[in-house]
Amino acid sequence: MELYTLENPVFQMYLFVVAVSVAKMMYQNLLASIRMVVSGTGMQSPEDLRPGLLNPDPKLSQLSAGDYVDRPRRILQTDLEVNPAFWVVGLGFVAVNPPLLFAEILFVGFF
To answer: What is the mean pLDDT of the chain?
Structure first.
């Protein structure tokens, strides 16, 4: 059995965990954007003060930081720092070809 094919259940588990981690990062980015629009705060650049479709009446207070918007950003930043290393180490782990139950425990335990 080849290690890096979909016939390998450990590789299948690895791909599932990678897909979930990518979806989580995309969700955090979307959540921060939605919270910025809803609260009208959390913008980061002076360019964000230009009037537009989603920000018709910009105010200088929109550049102030708030935990409501910054929390998903901090979570995303942590994911961006940790996940790429996990993806690389996970491929090495697949190469070892451990028992499936052990791989499931370690992969899911990462989250």
So the answer is: 90
Q: How confident is the model at residue 9 (pLDDT cuts 50, 70, 90)?
A: very high
**Quick one: tokens of 37?**
């629009």
CA distance 29 to 20: 14
The Cα 107–Cα 111 span in angstroms is: 8
DSSP 40: S
pTM recorded for the entire structure: 0.82
pLDDT digit string, tens, across residues 77-99: 999 999 999 999 999 999 999 99
Nearest to 68 by CA among 46, 44, 36, 45: 36
Strand ranges in 1-111 using DSSP code E only, listed in sequence order: none
Cα 4 to Cα 9: distance, rounded to the nearest angstrom? 10
Angle at 83 between CA 69 and CA 33, to 5 degrees: 20
